Task: structure prediction
Amino acid sequence: MTAVRATLMRYFQPAALLGILALWWLLPEAQASDPFTLLIAVLATPLVVLALEWVSERHAAWRMTWYELAHDLFFVVLSFTAVRFCIDHLAEAGIAEAKASLGLQTLWLQQLPFPVQVAMVLVLIEYGQYWMHRAMHNWHPLWLTHAPHHHLTQLNALKGAVGNPVELFLIGLSIVGLFDFSLTAVFCAAHMLAAIGSFAHANVRFDPPRWYSFLFTTIEHHSLHHSLDYEATRSNYANCLILIDRLHGTFRAGEGVLLGQEGGRLTVGGIMLYTFMPIINALRGGRRPA
Ligand SMILES: [Zn+2]
Ligand SMILES: [Zn+2]
Result:
């Protein structure tokens, strides 16, 4: 049993990524180009990872409770409804208009092998997320959107979705819509990114091969980014491709166990309002009699 568990912890992440690639490559066109298929796939993946948290827990202090589950599911639903609606109607629509007005045509991309297209989409999305995340840690107005995610004091497979909706909107932006990749390759990359983000937040004692943690973000890398140590939070910005941190000098080895920010964890209301508190406080202060 111990050997089976050790093998599962070692190879689950790389096998899952290969499985996701194969799934989208082999799916019939009708299902592979249906956004509903992507929704189901992206929602099902963290459920499997949550099951693994029972099989091989990383830290008892991070254990899922009914409160945590309800708390986290609120943000999962928010991400797939209001935040997704805003990304589609405010950002993606604008990208499509810009593409049309500039006359950008890159249909040749669809002639590339499927895994190459997936890799290109992964890198394009990840580079955008890396710089957005790094900017959030270096410019106060953007930090106000991201800080609630850093007030988390425990991690699990759903915690990647927990954050202020303005942050979730900003981190969801990408320029992939400017290019004519096959829709299936874009969906496959989106599924992979969601899966790696879930693995990197999971309370699971994964023990992946060295090559995996050289390329992809793991729970060790990302828990260090969430740690109480301020300097450590200024490293490992990549949500999925830790290779980008290695290339830009922001990689740091290690692992975080005690997580969070001064002030401790926030309530759901606290996370929703945190970004707007300077404005709310200014308005409150303005109303006070002199
Ligand atoms: Zn961060
Ligand atoms: Zn995180």
Summary: The CA atoms of residues 95 and 177 lie 6 Å apart. The chain has a mean pLDDT of 95.
